[in-house]
Design a protein that fits this description.
Layout lengths: L1 H11 L16 E5 L4 E5 L6 H9 L7 E3 L8 E7 L7 E6 L6 H10 L3 E4 L2
Length: about 120
C-alpha cells in the first residue's frame, strides 16, 4: 500500500498547477513500475520530461523506468484518468499481477475523482 501512496504523491507533485485546459493529450512521459505492475502516463501540458524522468527514476522505494512513449496495453486490468482536460492530466495503467483487484483499483480511482476504464 505504501507504494500506491508514493505513486499518488508523484501524481500530486504537479497537481498544484492551474486549471488550464490546454492539454494536448499526447504523452510527455511515462513511468513504468514493473515491480508493482503499474505504469503512469503524464499527458498534461505542465509536465516537463526531464523533471518527470528525475522523479520517476529516483522514487523513494520503487524507482521506475522513464520513457517518452505510451504505457503498454498488454495484460491491462484497467486505467484511471485523473485531472482530465487539465494541465496536470495523467493516467495510471494497472496490469495483471497488481496487489489490488480490479474492483479495488476502480474504487480507489473513483475515490480520487478519476475516471476508471476496464482493460481488455
Amino acid at each position: 500500500m505504501r507504494v500506491y501512496l508514493t505513486l499518488i504523491g508523484l501524481s500530486l507533485l504537479w497537481a498544484c498547477g492551474s486549471d488550464d485546459s490546454s492539454n494536448s493529450g499526447s504523452v510527455v512521459g511515462r513511468c513504468n513500475y514493473s515491480a508493482i505492475f503499474q505504469c503512469t502516463e503524464y499527458t498534461g501540458s505542465s509536465y516537463d520530461d526531464s523533471r518527470l524522468e528525475t522523479a520517476c527514476e529516483n522514487g523513494s522505494d520503487d524507482a521506475g523506468e522513464f520513457s517518452t512513449s505510451a504505457c503498454s496495453d498488454d495484460s491491462l486490468i484497467g486505467t484511471c484518468l485523473l485531472y482530465s482536460g487539465q494541465d496536470t492530466e495523467l493516467t495510471h495503467h494497472y496490469y495483471t499481477g497488481a496487489e489490488l483487484t480490479s474492483s479495488e483499483l476502480e474504487t480507489t480511482c473513483d475515490t480520487g475523482e478519476g475516471t476508471w476504464t476496464s482493460g481488455s
